[in-house]
Write a structure and sequence with these properties.
protease; PmbA/TldD fold; TldD/PmbA_sf; alpha+beta; Metalloprtase-TldD/E_N
């Protein structure tokens, strides 16, 4: 890296800057204020066809100030964290607040809700990696993939590593700091046959570099996934069971959480308005967040309001058990915050899991989706329509790769028609899930079903 990153020292510096901003806001007449500050440093290298393409060293910092004058709110931010810049940022926030309308829901979260239990969640694992070492790991990954028979071209391999510190403070006297790290390696390859070219990729990511998969394994898996797509054709049109790969099933959970988010609910822009206590999934399905899980991707002891995070059950025995609320959205809905300013953290599904082979056998005839394209999801109605590629399944067995088709349905119906979850868990992100088998969706291919 360009220079050493002392996370402990950065925590102290950011905390003092946040305290300065709060003091300035109070001096200038703010009734309350909150400050977020962060600094991140990292390196990213990309290689292609055995040559270095890019090397990027980054160091970013920022500070954001929100002030409250009565029930008027103003926010301003800067990438310059010097004292003069902080002073100007506070003044800008106050100037904005003077011209905004009063909002009865604005203001800090209640002081009694501020985080008290702030343990080390084991999310900071720096990687003392030189640029030369990073390049060699990326080259090793691509070499392993390109060595697989049938791989004809490469879009390259990328290695990234970074660490950072964030601070949140408010005029209740709360100051929360957290340091963290994130590392990753990916590879994208191309194969070709008489029917044309196909591409696919694989990646590994972790807080701790020791948890990353070996570079050669990533390259070979990227090659395997690319080769299996050769000879793709379009599937028939009709209504079929659809199996979503784990990497895509996490997106379905993301759509669910977007519909349960307080911002969408108070705007009446969600298909799950007034859904508390109502059945949404089969009774065997439970969804929980675990923000205090050690070493996990999204662990944090406090949310974006400084509120103590806690485990929340969003789906309990198939029913909507909780919305996802910040202090502001909770006030708008006449409810209490769930400690979710900034989103949900470490979503985990509790349900019976089955081997993918068992799900395919139950499917009998249908579509296994491994890639989705487009943004055809309507959060207001729940209507879902995405371009896709994957594999055609007949008699419970994969027959051939398929592409250039659409899968469509409605999220509420899709959740209700969930018939099985795979034990092939994808744990690379903040949502851990296996494959999802949905009983019936519309598949638009090139010919009617027979």
């Amino acid at each position: 890296m360009a220079q050493a990153f002392d996370a402990r020292a950065q925590q102290s510096v950011l905390a003092s800057r946040a305290e300065l901003a709060l003091a300035l806001a109070k001096q200038r007449g703010a009734d309350a204020a909150e400050v977020g500050a962060s600094v991140d440093q990292g390196i990213e290298v990309s290689v292609r066809l055995g040559e270095v393409e890019t090397v990027e060293l980054s160091r970013d910092q920022g500070i954001a100030v929100t002030v409250y004058v009565g029930q008027r709110k103003g926010s301003a931010s800067s990438t310059d964290a010097g004292e003069d810049s902080i002073r100007a940022t506070v003044e800008q926030a106050l100037a904005i607040a003077r011209y905004t309308g009063e909002d009865p829901a604005s203001g800090l979260a209640d002081a009694a809700l501020m985080a008290r239990d702030v343990p080390d969640l084991d999310v900071h694992h720096p990687w003392a990696l030189s640029t030369e070492q990073a390049i060699e790991l990326a080259l090793e990954c691509e070499r392993a993939g390109r060595a697989v028979e049938g791989i004809t071209q490469s879009e390259g391999a990328t290695l990234s590593t970074g660490e950072g510190v964030r601070v949140y403070a408010n005029s209740h006297g709360f100051i929360g700091t957290q340091k963290g790290s994130r590392h990753g390696l990916s590879c994208t390859l191309i194969a070709e046959d008489e029917n044309g070219m196909q591409r696919d990729m694989d990646y590994t990511t972790a807080r701790d570099p020791a948890a990353l998969r070996a570079p050669a394994d990533v390259g070979r898996e990227a090659a395997r996934k690319t080769r299996r797509r050769l000879g793709a054709r379009r599937p028939p049109t009709g209504t079929f069971p659809v199996l979503f790969d784990p990497s895509l099933a996490g997106g379905l959970v993301g759509h669910l959480m977007g519909a349960l988010a307080g911002g969408a609910l108070y705007r009446q822009a969600s298909f799950l308005c007034d859904s508390l206590g109502k059945p949404l999934f089969p009774a065997w399905f439970n969804l929980e967040e675990r923000p205090m899980e050690r070493g996990a991707t999204a662990s944090s002891p406090f949310d974006g309001d400084g509120v103590q995070t806690r485990s929340n059950r969003f789906i309990e025995q198939g029913k909507v058990a909780s919305y996802m609320l910040s202090a502001y959205s909770a006030r708008r809905l006449g409810m209490a915050t769930t400690g979710n300013a900034g989103g949900a953290r470490n979503l985990r599904i509790e349900a019976p899991l089955e081997p993918v082979e068992a799900l395919l056998a139950r499917m009998d005839r249908g579509v296994w989706v491994t890639e989705l394209m487009g943004q055809g999801v309507n959060g207001v109605t729940g209507d879902y329509s995405r371009g896709a590629s994957g594999f055609w399944v007949e008699n419970g067995r994969v027959q051939y790769p398929i592409e250039e088709f659409t899968v469509a349905g409605n999220l509420e119906q899709m959740f209700a028609n969930l018939t099985g979850l795979g034990n092939d868990l994808d744990t690379r992100g903040s949502i851990h899930t296996g494959s999802w088998l949905i009983d019936a969706m519309t598949v638009a291919g090139n010919q009617p079903s027979v």
